[in-house]
Amino acid sequence: MSRSTMSVAVPSPEFPVYRAVTAHVTGGLAGALRVMTLLHGRRYPVRNLDVDVREGVVESRVSCTLLLTAGETGLLLERLRRIPVVVSAENS
């Protein structure tokens, strides 16, 4: 009687690395605060945060570095893009 062996594909684990994410928002400081509220409320591990809000400019920028896996980064970008004031969000 022979034993057959089955090979099972085991996904390789995703390791978190520091990733830069940038969101372009409208609404000035209020728009930037909406992005920061999402980051804080979902307990994202923010390493650093940079907010660029200027008077008279249509879009402001919120950039941050977070410790995330590739899957978590994709989910964060989806969440950011669902916020009405976010014009665009990308992994930079």
Number of discrete domains: 1
CATH architecture: 2-Layer Sandwich
CATH topology: Alpha-Beta Plaits
Fourth-tier CATH superfamily name:
ACT domain
Low-confidence stretches: none
- Calculate the terminal CA-CA distance, rounded to whole Å: 57 Å
Largest sheet: 4 strands, antiparallel
Helix residue percentage: 25-40%
Q: Estimate the global geometry from the Cα principal axes.
A: elongated
What are the secondary-structure elements, in order, as H or E? EHEEHE
- The CATH class turns out to be Alpha Beta
Protein name: ACT domain-containing protein
Q: If you had to describe this structure to a student in words, what would you say it looks like?
A:
This protein is an alpha+beta fold. The protein has one domain: Alpha-Beta Plaits, CATH 3.30.70.260. 28% of the residues lie in helices and 34% in strands. It is built from 2 helices and 4 strands; from the N terminus they run βαββαβ. The protein has a 4-stranded antiparallel β-sheet, with helices on one face. It is elongated, with a radius of gyration of 19 Å. 18% of the residues are buried. The model has no long low-confidence stretch (mean pLDDT 91). This is ACT domain-containing protein.
